[in-house]
Amino acid sequence: MTICTDICLSITFLVVFRVDPLKPGVRLTAVFDSCHSGSVLDLPYSYESSGKQNHSRGVCQFVAAHLSSALASYAKGVIDLKGIKRGAWFIKKRLTTNRNAEQKTVSTKSSPADVVQWGGCRDNEVGCGMSYGKPIGMMGVMTHSFVSAVSENPQQSYAQLLKSIRDRCVKEGNPKHLQIPQLSCSHPLDTGSPVIM
């Protein structure tokens, strides 16, 4: 993926020349308010505004679908043992596959440094800019939301700040182009801990 503004930056350039050389104990907080910036640093851990990692959402939906199907059959008085066995096998396979994929991602995309990335929107979304009048002028919606949220309450947790930024983007942004700011990290993050910059 390549991000173009006045200059073009490839994700490979950002990761190889900016993240990979960082040593243990170094902290990098990067804020990207650009289109398709959700995973611009290609970090392995991403979070929802609830504070939970969002890697498991697909697996949970998959498991819920199989369980609701089994319960619906049971409610009708039909006990489909083959279906239950097949569903259990699919659930086990999905959980195992997800675990293996997650382990590979962590081993190949982690950094010894403490890297936190705030992305302006998901990878499939477009970031918006707006005029905020004098003295600010033109600014990205996520940048304005980020600065406003931190200025109003500098003692927020990561989850609180992500929620504040997302809420502001919805309120201030273009309703035709919803952008959902993202939080990702090089290591698991206690999203209840205070934001450090």
Automatic annotation (TrEMBL):
GO CC term (a single one): cytoplasm
Single GO biological process annotation from the record: proteolysis
GO molecular function per UniProt: cysteine-type endopeptidase activity
InterPro entries, alphabetized: Metacaspase
Stored Gene3D superfamilies: 3.40.50.12660
Family: Belongs to the peptidase C14B family.
Protein name: Similar to Metacaspase-1 acc. no. A6SDT7
